[in-house]
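Hello again, I could really use a second opinion on something today. For a while now I've been wondering how a particular protein folds. Please have a think about how the structure follows from the sequence. Here's the protein in full, and shout if anything looks odd to you:

***
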Amino acid sequence: MQILLATGNPHKFAEIIALLPRQTYSGEKLIYVSLKDFPNLQVPKENGTTLEENAAIKAVSAAKQTGLMALSDDTGLEVDALNGQPGIHTARYAGEPANTQANNQKLLQALHGLPLAKRTARFRTVACLSAADGKTQYFKGTLEGYIGLDYQGKNGFGYDPIFVLHDTHKTLAEISPADKNKISHRAKAFAQVAEYLKQLTQ
């Protein structure tokens, strides 16, 4: 059974693949493909007002165009001192085109002068699995932490070098990809996806 991961981001694709099962409980193989396998697929604009809406826009469109079950997610970084921003604008916080370095710099500048105790934040992921007929299922995960004062670590991507975990006081970029996949917001959401996929029957 083929399942389309509705992302063209190779980092995200690799991270998600590591979280998903290779077969169902009945023994059927699960094969994952990405948007790069469908170069002519029309990618819709993510103009939703919530993470749920944006995840569904991508998954439903991909499923209907390909006839495959499609999986997409949207993740928001919610900073308490910024009233939940950047939220749905996380990927393009510093404007178009999306630029990780610019996003991180803008966020650090917005929090400049605030002590760590007032830099609390969380990553929130919503995954949407869509059948070809548009029927959807949602799965959610959250990771609490705070925004550090500067960059730390070389692993991960996006905001990982400045997002600090409460328990270890290390950034997501300072822990191994394997450890990140055990605790992250995306890991929590996709653990639920994985269990759902294992139960699928053709």
